[in-house]
Amino acid sequence: MVVTASIDVLSNPLSAAQVPCIINGKPYVTSKTYSRNDPHTGKHLFDVTAVTEDDAPWKATSPIERRKIFQNAARIIETRKDDIVKLATYETTHSVAWTHVDMTLAIAALEELASAITQLTAEVVRPAPGQEGYIFREPFGVVLGIAPWNAALTLGFRSVSNAIIGGNTAILKSSEHSPRIHNAVAQIFAEAGLPAGVLNVVHVDPRDAPKVVESMVAHPAIRKVNFTGSTPVGAKIAEMCGRHLKPSVMELGGAAPFIVLEDADIEHAVNNAIHASFTHSGMAIYLSQKSNSYESVQVRFACQQSQSSCLVSNTMRANLSLSVLLLHDSIADEFLNTMKGRVLKAGQSPESAYRGLFTAQSADRVRSLINDAVAQGASLVTGSTGSGNIIQPTILDNTPESARIVTDEIFGPAVCVIRFRDEEDAVRIANDREFGLSAAVFSTDLGRAFAIARRIESGGVHINDSTIHDYPTLPHGGWKKSGWGRFNGLEGIKEFTQLKVITVNELHKFPTA
């Protein structure tokens, strides 16, 4: 490896021809590289330094010192927004609007962790007269964080920040699609005062990822692993952790049910359904995928939705179409004729809040899900599968529960509609799946909605609100094949600490026989 002088991916984010790893606070360049190309045009952007299988006093700092560093990091993001936008739109081709959302979430998460760390206190228990037990939380040591690209800044920070503020050191294994943004995470922390070596960033050629990640997981220095990504990849990493007896936190796939009861505020539900289905081209992890609605309100819902879609598009400066569609057969032709002129192609400018999918391969997968549903009898209400990485926002009505688009994670701008008879039917449909990351229930009867929410098998259920929620003040994570463990706030810090018990006994002689 060759060491260069300093980290600076923000001052001129488009200049570097090669992206280094970051070890002990300094950039490292190796002889191994892989290319990063524009996902839309295929144009070569830059080369990324990649580690190979052989490469691989913070604990004593006070919570107040750590809090100050995290507060500084949040302020740096705020002051460097223009640089971050330039970097993100270049490297990932995310829209300007989405990048601002990403930065806002990252700032909020850092500020909440800064606030929560001083709440992590020891407990004292007196198990018997003359005895005291002290319960402490101690850091694990080195934590490996594996981050995705779809909210590269927020999830890059999240993969290491919960661990670091708890007194651990961390290694961030970047996404091959956002290595510069993940280097920027290290740069921001360094400028905020994080000591060199507390956070290291490594890039891995996708072709070498399985063996390199296993090598890192197996290394004795790594004490815990966290991963955000797909369920199939998460299962492989969890298997690695199991072989080496390493605890892990996993946030995996999601396919959020979005239940609209017959007494719901239709306009409010429609606006949230659109937001939940098509934000970030359907590539947010906790987007709403399946909508259930009482048949008695389908006509009102469909008519209101066609009106609100244009309002949302204008407000967000985006080529948004519909998301969850509840459509009655008697107005299908009229509705489709109205909607044909309102469905716009995915935008390609950085200012657009709706973009094409990240790769043509991702789009092909979504196309196959849509085609499978149609082949099984679903009705294509609006949308077009197109070509390349462009898929228009797509709504499928009367989708069979056996269709792959119902049972699998979509991760694209498509949503299926299923009609239910009563609450029991709605809960059954919502729970009859492998995922449990997020869900929503819409009703003007809050007691009724709350009772249904308690029955839904999901890590989070949102009443009269979008499924796209990750409040930094609340624990976030999934049930079932959506993963385990929690990020955010005090619970997120606890997740990356381990319990230690120290007992103190009064001096006394043990009784003799």
From TrEMBL:
Molecular function GO terms recorded: oxidoreductase activity, acting on the aldehyde or oxo group of donors, NAD or NADP as acceptor
Family matches, as Gene3D superfamilies: Aldehyde Dehydrogenase, Chain A, domain 1, Aldehyde Dehydrogenase, Chain A, domain 2
Transmembrane feature ranges: none
Keyword terms of this UniProt record: NAD
PANTHER family for this protein: BENZALDEHYDE DEHYDROGENASE YFMT (PTHR42986)
Recorded superkingdom: Eukaryota
Family the UniProt entry places it in: Belongs to the aldehyde dehydrogenase family.
Protein name: Aldehyde dehydrogenase family
Annotated ranges, domain Aldehyde dehydrogenase: 55-282, 321-502
Keyword Manganese tagged: no
One Pfam assignment: Aldedh
